[in-house]
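Hi there,

I know you've been waiting on this one. I reran it after we fixed the sequence typo, so this is the corrected version. Both the input and the resulting structure follow.
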Amino acid sequence: MQDREHNILFTRPVDKNLIEKAKEQGVNITVVPFVNTVSASADVIKILLRHTSAYDAYIFTSTSAVMAVANVDDLLKGNVYCMAGATLQAVSEQLNDCVVVATADNAASLANKIIADGKVKKLAFFCGDMHLPHLPQILKEHGVEVKELEVYSTIATPAKIDRLYDGIAFFSPSAVKSYLSLNNFDRRQVLFAIGNTTAASLSGYENVIVAEKPTQEAVVNSIIDYYKTGTKSA
């Protein structure tokens, strides 16, 4: 157990069991969401799904995209490339007729796996309006056609934070941008990122810890381990 308790700001909701797990280890989590996602209308998504059979496979890099599609058509069939962690779990639970071909912890690795497969020439990328361009750019540079289908929107919900937290946990670049629109980082704070893409949006800041896997649990574990040992989780 730590000599003192540590207070961490989470910029998105987190499972209650993980909050309790952290509390048992002297880490108090406060949740203040800095972004919200809104699915496109059912009519819009139905139009986007009309020609999905023309694609060799689908890409999902967020749970929001999976849920937006599943809420309209949970019978979507086909091969899927997706991010590991929560996105993979959502695909497995919500899109039972899809087959996950490969997963990765970040967009670049996922793109490289698709390229290495060599069989995919045309992909449908279910995404949000603020998705980063890296994945489709890499694929297009290697001759893979990517159709970006926006099935949800990301809305910033910035809030002024007057308390100095020991650390802040981020789960997307858009949340980082939203936070910084009204706040600044203190050099004494530790910043925790769910993955390398989010960590990249924190470049230039010291004390950035990246979770070993892109899951909420891995983020919580990295926080617990950091305050126990001063290092990221193994």
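Quick highlight: The chain has a mean pLDDT of 93.

Best,
R. S.
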